[in-house]
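Dear all,

This email documents one entry for the complex benchmark we are building for the journal club exercise. For each entry we list the sequence lines for every component of the assembly. Then comes the predicted three-dimensional structure of the complex as a token string, followed by one or two observations. Please use this as the template for your own entries, and keep the labels exactly as they appear.
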Amino acid sequence: MTGRVHKYGDNVNTDEIIPARYLNTTDPNELAAHCMEDIDLEFPKKVRPGDIIVAEQNFGCGSSREHAPIAIKAAGVSCVIAKTFARIFYRNAINIGLPILECPEAVDGISNGDEVEVDLISGKIRNITSGQDFQAKPFPLFMQQLIAAGGLINYARERISSY
Amino acid sequence: MGQTITQKILAAHCGKKSVDPGELINAKVDLVLGNDITAPIAIKEFEKISAADVFDRDKIALVPDHSMPNKDIKSAELAKAMKEFARKHKITNYFEVGRMGIEHTLVPDKGLVLPGDVVIGADSHTCTYGAIGAFSTGVGSTDMAAAMALGEVWLKVPEVIKFVYYGKLQPWVGGKDLILYTIGKIGVDGALYSSMEFTGETISQLPMHGRFTMCNMAIEAGGKNGIIEPDETTLEYIKQRARHVYNVYQSDPDAVYKDVIEIDCSKIEPQVSFPHLPENTKPISEVGDIQIDQAVVGSCTNGRIEDLREAASVLRGRKVHPDVRMIVIPGTQEIYLQAVQEGLAQIFVEAGAVFSTPTCGPCLGGHMGVLAAGERAVATTNRNFVGRMGHVTSEVYLAGPSVAAASAVMGRIASPEEIE
């Protein structure tokens, strides 16, 4: 996948990703219309399908609201690359199938507006604009299986049907 | 090699003698929790699993608390979906408005979580129950859905940071100040993916409400769970509440920790966290002149009866500053009634404060106290992110109940010591 980068700083929190005033809906498209609104008011207008969010430390900290990764995914974002993720956001992204990668070197080597190519299976990240290559940390085996199963719900369905 | 209390609880829930940090396990859960914002998504996902029924109708708690009483039609629809799910699956622990409370105050008060339990909740402050020696952690709605079907959750066994608190607390200093100080010291990702084990003589002396407040905010340091070994204070709290068999675990003396952080509490003043991160803490003496528009006492962090008593002790016989709105929110209906019976409600109303029904409301900028552009609040809540309590240019300062009450009187962030 290839996309244009929207870059943010440390501690991007779930209130910024999707403010609580929009949590009276579960509709992904409605949530996407307000995605990142309190940190970047223009984001919902400027984001294009396939775009990539790049951020520093502790992306997604705060609330457990799954509305946050849902909003990002529904906005068309293909992948989030950060130095670290807050743990509940990390789980939620894996569970709903929003691709995320931890790669501090890539975050340092990517600027806002760069074109970036990501291979999720190998974890290879290429900054097309600068020509630099980076390698993300691989997922633990269990999470690879979860991703391969198509997320936690498919995994749970397989478990239930095997009872 | 010794095990921490967190490792022992997790090992017992995946059928192992011991577990190691980093290990991925499927743990049996003793309680799965959701609220009116997170459960509706979980219910949709649950339907996709095609499970015949929930794994155990007694081990699911559904609490409408965030936008309660219903703040608008959309919120009412979400609450309705949760209620219908509860009826369909005969969920034992569904709490209707009028009988509910803020989930993290209600659930332990009802005895639904006990020492040694594993609890997951689709709410980040589920980590609160570590205060009674349970492993409890926040997850998302999809995790909640899978756990409602399977009765288990995938977890990575966390590394553990041990915090040792020593020294006698100064007047007006409590659990809120200890945890804000701790977050200020280690940062909002200082315990990322890790367990925070709170120990030491100061914790042994700390009453239950202060312990709940500390574990509640473990997530604000990025922690997976906060936990305190059960002691006499814990057992006294659960004595009248326990509904199921429980297990008291203690960390082994030779347990392995990622880090050990010692904190001298005797020098800690009441703390205030400045916008827009909980780690921006200052002692009250260094706050300066910060005018406020609103003061909030309540939330899953500080809505217990002791918190209300503390605020009332400052407000008794005084008036809220003419420029300030003060909102006091008891954590549960029982606490509400207790506050009425003890005369606390009268103190709040006579002081010119609002005394509200239980709700998460203003803490997340939902309703019952949303801030306008440029407004400033001091609140006993848990987050002060950009726009957390309302408009994107509003500000939230976090503090304990006595500072919030003193600030309401003075019209600026103030220490209770300033009020004579």
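Observations: The domain at 5-263 of chain B is CATH 3.30.499.10 (Aconitase; domain 3). The mean pLDDT of chain B is 97.
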